[in-house]
C-alpha cells in the first residue's frame, strides 16, 4: 500500500516527485485525504493542489480516494485519447495504433526500470543476506527464521532485553492470538479509518 505526489514545476525548476509509503491502505487513504483537501504550500509560499497518484489494492481503496487511484486516472486518460478531435476528423485505426504504441513504450520503460533495479539478483551477482535482526523479540523471530530464512536469522546482542515482566503473565507473552467472536468492523462514511469496538474493549480488559 502507497501514494505518489508530484508537484508542478515552478519557473526554472525541475519537476519533483515524492513517493509516500504507509503501512496500510487506510493510512494511504488518510494521507490522500489530508493532502488533497487543503493542498500544500509551495516554495513560493502559495497554496497549490498537488497531482496525486495512489496505487494499491483496488478493493480496499476508500471511495474518497478513487479520483486519485491509478486505475481511475488511466481510464480517464484513455477516454480522453479516444475523444474525436475538434475539426471532426477521427481515424479510430490511427488513434488506436498511436495509443497502443504509446502504452507499449511506457510499459517497456517500466520493465527496463525494474530490470535495472533487480540486476544484482538476476545477473549472477552474490546476494548479501542480513542475518542479524534488531527489531523482533526472540520468540517472535523464531517463526520467520524457521519458515523463511532456513533458521539463519539471528537475534542482536540486546534482543533479550526486550522481555518485560508482563511477558510472564499467561496471555501477555511477546505475542498472542485472541479469537474475538463478536468482533465487527465499524466504518463511517465520513471517516477513513475503521473501528473495532470489541477489540478495543478486550485490550482495556487485558490492561486493567
UniProtKB/TrEMBL annotation:
> What domain of life is recorded for the organism?
Eukaryota
Give any GO molecular function from the UniProt entry: helicase activity
Transmembrane region(s): none
Q: Which residues form the DNA2/NAM7 helicase-like C-terminal domain?
A: 124-190
Residues of the DNA2/NAM7 helicase helicase domain: 10-93
Q: Which SUPFAM superfamilies match?
A: P-loop containing nucleoside triphosphate hydrolases
Q: Which InterPro entries match?
A: DNA2/NAM7-like (IPR045055), DNA2/NAM7-like_C (IPR041679), DNA2/NAM7_AAA_11 (IPR041677), P-loop_NTPase (IPR027417)
Name listed for the protein in its UniProt record: DNA2/NAM7 helicase-like C-terminal domain-containing protein
Question: What is the scientific name of the source organism?
Answer: Pisum sativum (Garden pea)
